[in-house]
Design goal:
By secondary structure, the chain is an alpha+beta fold. It folds into 2 domains: 14-134, Jelly Rolls (Sandwich); 149-231, Winged helix-like DNA-binding domain superfamily/Winged helix DNA-binding domain (Arc Repressor Mutant, subunit A, Orthogonal Bundle), CATH 1.10.10.10. Helix content is 42%, strand content 22%. It is built from 9 helices and 11 strands. The strands form 3 sheets. The protein has a 4-stranded antiparallel sheet. A hairpin with a 2-residue loop joins strand 10 (212-215) and strand 11 (218-221). Helix 6 (150-166) crosses helix 8, helix 6 (150-166) runs antiparallel to helix 9 and helix 7 crosses helix 8. The protein starts with 13 loop residues before the first helix and ends with a helix.
Length: 235
């Protein structure tokens, strides 16, 4: 039986955790910007010095390997803070961020964001919490890769995405949850370190178990508790 770390409850996005005065101050320092589907918000290796707050839509975070292969590291959604580590640390971007859906965002120059944090020092805790949460996510991903087979890893990934999605859109009347980020089989495979064929077989298996429904770039989790149980190797 494979064991997995207990999932952490989805945390509210950075923007959601701010109070009204903090939001107003940050919006005053920002400029709004829209990004179409598949457009990059930032490039890996870029030296741009701004942070981005997603107001609407989903993005994927990818990193290019030495042989030019893009690896999916994460998805981010409404309320999330992006590119803060490079902007605040004066480093080049460590990953590329690409729109999975139409994006509406706030773009804040690094100097203005630093000024905002100096005027609202309590917000530093939210920024620090973002760093810690992302380190925890990486740790869980590594443990899941070591401890489980392909279908279980996909089940765990889909369960986490379902919980994330439910934080923004309530489950349907029957309890099913449509996963918000529109990820392809190739993107899912990159994220869980598996081939597209492995993902396709795993999706078929989860459908046969009655745990998910699928369409083009659409996955609906039918029974989240059972999916969690399956991911833990206990089904």
């Amino acid at each position: 039986m494979a064991l997995h770390p207990a999932p952490s409850a989805p945390r509210p996005g950075f923007w959601t955790a701010l109070d009204q005065a903090q939001r107003s101050a940050l919006r005053a320092a920002a400029r709004p910007k829209n990004y179409p589907v598949r457009s990059p918000l930032v490039y890996q290796g870029d030296e741009s010095d701004h942070v981005i707050i997603i107001e609407r839509g989903w993005v994927k975070v990818t990193s290019s390997t030495e042989n030019g292969h893009d690896v999916v590291l994460a998805v981010r959604g409404p309320g999330d803070l992006l590119a803060e580590s490079a902007a605040l640390g004066g480093r080049t971007r460590s990953a590329t961020v690409t729109a999975l859906s139409p994006i509406r965002a706030l773009v804040v120059p690094a100097a203005r964001f630093t000024g905002f944090l100096e005027a609202h020092p309590e917000v530093w805790r939210l920024v620090t919490g973002t760093f810690v949460q992302r380190l925890d996510d990486q740790d869980r991903r590594l443990k899941a890769h070591v401890a489980s087979r392909g279908t279980q890893r996909l089940a765990l990934l889909l369960a986490n995405l379902a919980e994330l999605s439910a934080a923004y859109v309530p489950p349907a009347a029957d309890g099913s949850i449509e996963i918000g980020p529109p990820l392809s089989q190739e993107e899912l495979g990159s994220w869980m370190d598996a081939s597209r064929e492995t993902v396709a077989r795993a999706l078929n298996g989860l459908r046969r178990e009655g745990l998910i429904r699928t369409g083009w770039r659409r996955i609906t989790v039918v029974d989240l508790p059972r999916l969690r149980t399956f991911a833990a190797g206990q089904d």
